[in-house]
Each structure stands twice: as structure tokens, then as C-alpha cells.
Amino acid sequence: MTVSGNTQSSSTPPHKLRVVIAQQDFLVGDIPGNTERIIDAAKQAYAQEEADMVVFPEMCLTGYSPEDLLFRPSLDLRVDEALKRLQNEKLEAAIVIGAPLRSEGVLYNAALVIEGGEITGRYFKRVTPNDSVFDEKRYFEAGSEAVVVSVCGVPVGLTIGDDLSVDGPVEESAAAGAKLVLNLSASPFTIHQRAGRKSLLERRASENQVSIIYANLVGAQDELAYDGGAMVYDPSGTLAVAAPRFTEGLYPVDFLCHKECQPATQALPAELSLEESVYSALVAGVRDYVNKNGFKSVVLGLSGGLDSALALAVAGDALGPERVRAVMMPFRYTSDISLIDAEAQAETMGVQYEVHSIEPLYDAFMEALAVPFAGTTPDTTEQNLQARVRGVVLMSLSNKFGSLVLTTGNKSELAVGYSTLYGDMAGGFDVLKDVPKTLAFRLARYRNSVSAIIPERVITRPPSAELAPDQKDEDNLPGYDVLDPILHLYVEKDYSADAIVAEGYERADVERVVRLVDLNEYKRRQAPIGVRITERAFGKDRRYPITSGWKSGR
């Protein structure tokens, strides 16, 4: 256990402390740029809010997560240069930052206190998660000691991320005299995580009779979205302060510290609905992926169906209509109402819109394939060719104009392979990759409650890929109200087929869905990344072999 600086005695007069939580979006790998963001935020917090201390999120110096950039030989040099830059700035407010730090040849996920131009405290994360999307044991050793450091005359305990999830770190900090505990976090958004987060903070604060500041990352990195949502709990376990979610900003909190550090209570923002929080995560994911990777604009295929309509809405909200190009690519099976509805949405949103029939391109391919296809009957090959022609059109527009292609497939389709490799899966980012179809309907309703941009008929008409006459999704799949719960149990909860049947689902439906999920792993390996919103998304979360003899019954 490490204790630095003087702690207050019970006879010490009350001490006022103003802490500013810097809820910010950092770019992974841009250590010099992130350093300047930290300096600018600290200066602004002091000038505008008279901050005594500014608290930043976990790993803010490198962004989270740098992944194998942490193996680069120059990492230590770059981090050292950044820390010297921060010290030389001699900021008026103390700052608490997150960074990878090597000590005695071992790399740690660290929290650092810099006050008066000196590093006055170092703490090494004690719980390094190695599940779900986290691979911290691949990079970091776990710390073993609690650290309490005097910051602006107040004994402050340091924790990082999952340190709150186990007994020990907060308890030991409180036992060492901490009156305020900081938790620097980079906790990705998932649908149900907010409630668990709040419950854990409430329990740690009340059990140890300390105030806890939770400072979380905001923005997005590849498939992970971060919702910020900084919070302060008082020693009774009461939520006293909360920052808006999905919003960058500097959020001041006043404490009166004597026997305890008591935060001044502030009006709490309204909690977001599930639909609003998911939609906000999708917008953040698209915005940061496009902007951080330097794309000028995006292009997507607008079919007149629900998924592309919802993806277009997200793209417009993320980037502005001037950076969004919607392309309708009709074929002989495209209905008139699809054309009408697609144009209506594009016009309402003010995005660039154009129509390019794929009929001549498809006919050219079929003519070229006439000899090898001779004597065969039409099947899904011809349907897939339609999707692949559309993919070629979109990728050509992407290459010519520097636009990122957004794909629009949802999680339900991706799970069962109801998508075409090198066709509707061709692109750089899948907006709805982790959104089940039933949730997509709810998100469309939510977005229209803000302002009506998706035509009502798009939401109410039966879903169809329109790759064959009078085609409906449910001709080939169970209804989405059946499909999605089965997928949730199999993909996200790891239930066996037998266990799902025991939940009341028809065995024929379950076995069919499970077989399709297993068969289509090879497709998902080649799919673009997309925003993760559930606790088990396809990608880093769920890593199953393509070639396998595993039987899914039990």
C-alpha cells in the first residue's frame, strides 16, 4: 500500500475542493495530439471553472485501446516525452491522467497524478480484464497495491476501470485514509451496462463511506462506443452528480472535505431510454470512425427498406446531410413503393441522392456467364449477383470520390447468413451490425419521434430483400419475433439448442437457426466492423472456429 503526502486529521478545518471531470474523446495512437488535448482541457478547466484538480479517463494519453501498438519499441519513448511535456507545462490545476507506464521492465495500465510540474503519484491497475472485448492480460501486468496521494491537500485514492468490480482496491484506499476515490475508466457502451455501473458505484461508495468520482471515456474507437456518463457518488452511496452521456465536456464538482469529502449535489440529467442510448451509440460510432479515419463522406445503398433507411438516418445525424450520399439501385424486382419511399426520405433529409439501375450491369454479367451457366436453372446465384452488382457500384463510387461505403445489414441477418459476400456485405463499416431486426424497428420509431424522416410505410411493410418476385424475409426465416430471441440465447448467452427448446421454442425453428449461425461463421469473418451495442457482438466478443465438428444440440 502506498500513501504519499499528508492526510487530513479530524481537527483539520473543512477544505474546499473543485474537481473538473474531463469527459473527452481521444484518438488511439496520437500521443502528441492527446497530450495537447489534456493540456488545453486543463487550462480551460482552470481558467473557466477555477479547477483545483482535473480528472481524465483511463489511458487518455494513448487512447483506449491501443492494442498491439503497446508492443511497439518506441512506446516508452513517446509516453516519456508526453509526460515530460505535461510536467514542463506546470499547469495551475493538478491533473490525473491514464497512460501505459513501464516500471522495472514491466508494462502497467497506470494512473498518474501531476501537480506543480511533478508526478506526485502513480497507481497500477489491479484488475486487468481478459474477457469480452478486453485483452489487457496480453499487454499489462496487474498492480498489487492501493495508492493514496495528497492532491490539493486532500487524500485521494486511485483506481482504474474494473478495479471497482472486486473487493480490495476501494476498501484498501479508504483504510489508508482516502476521503475521495477516483475511478478512471474506458468502459464501452452496451445496452444494459449503465444500471450495473451505477449499482456498483453506489455499493462501493456506501460500504466504504467515501465519495467516488467515475470519469469515463466518450466517443468511439473502431467497433466500440463510449458513452461517458461521468458520475459522482457521495459517502452514503447517493448519486450526487452526473454528466450527460455521449457528450464531450468539462464538468465541475465542488467538494467540502473534512471527515468526509461531500460533493455539492447537482440536478441530474434525465436517463436516456434504451432506444435513445443505442441510437446515440450508433451515431457516435459512425461519426468517429469516419472522421478519425479521414473520410470526406459516406455512401450507402438506399433500398426503400427499413435497415438502409435507419442507417441513412444515423449517417445523416452523425455527419450532416452534406457528407452523405444515398444511391438507389433498382432492378426488375424493385417495387414502385421502394423507389417512392427512398426518394422521399432522401429529400426530407437533404442528402445527395441518385438512382442507378443495375439492369444493364446484371444483363452484362449474365451474358458473360451464359456459357458456364448453360443447362442450369436460376437459383440464389442470380439473386446474389444482383447484390454483388450493387456492391461493385458502391465500391466504385467509394474509390472515385473518397467516400466510405456504409453497409446496412442487421445482426439478425448476419447471424443466419442472410447476406451476400462481396454484395451487400461489401463496404467499410456496418452501421447496424450488432442491432437485431426487432430493435431496428424500435430505433426507427424512436428517430421519427425526434423528427419524422423515415416514411411510415418503410417501417410497417413486411421486410424484403426484393431479389425475387414477391419475396419476403419470413419466406426463408422464422418471424423476427421468434428469430431474435433464439439468436439472443444462442449467440449472446451461449445456450445449447436443447436449452433453447426448453425455453419454449419449437425444435425445428431452433435447430434451423442454430445450424445457420454455425454455417455462416465464414461470412462473418469477412464482414466489415460495426458498432457494438450488446454484450456479445460478432467480432472480438464471439470467436468461434470456421472449421468445426462441434454439435450444438447440448
TrEMBL record:
Its EC number is 6.3.5.1. It comes from the Bacteria. Keywords: ATP-binding, Ligase, NAD, Nucleotide-binding. L-glutamine binds at residue 187. Pathway: Cofactor biosynthesis; NAD(+) biosynthesis; NAD(+) from deamido-NAD(+) (L-Gln route): step 1/1. GO terms for biological process: NAD+ biosynthetic process. Residues 17-257 form the CN hydrolase domain. Deamido-NAD(+) binds at residues 384, 413, 523. GO terms for cellular component: cytoplasm. The active site is at residues 58, 125. ATP binds at residues 301-308, 408. SUPFAM superfamilies: Adenine nucleotide alpha hydrolases-like (SSF52402), Carbon-nitrogen hydrolase (SSF56317). GO terms for molecular function: ATP binding; glutaminase activity; NAD+ synthase (glutamine-hydrolyzing) activity; NAD+ synthase activity. It catalyses: deamido-NAD(+) + L-glutamine + ATP + H2O = L-glutamate + AMP + diphosphate + NAD(+) + H(+). In the C-terminal section; belongs to the NAD synthetase family. Catalyzes the ATP-dependent amidation of deamido-NAD to form NAD. Uses L-glutamine as a nitrogen source. This is Glutamine-dependent NAD(+) synthetase. It comes from Marinobacter adhaerens.
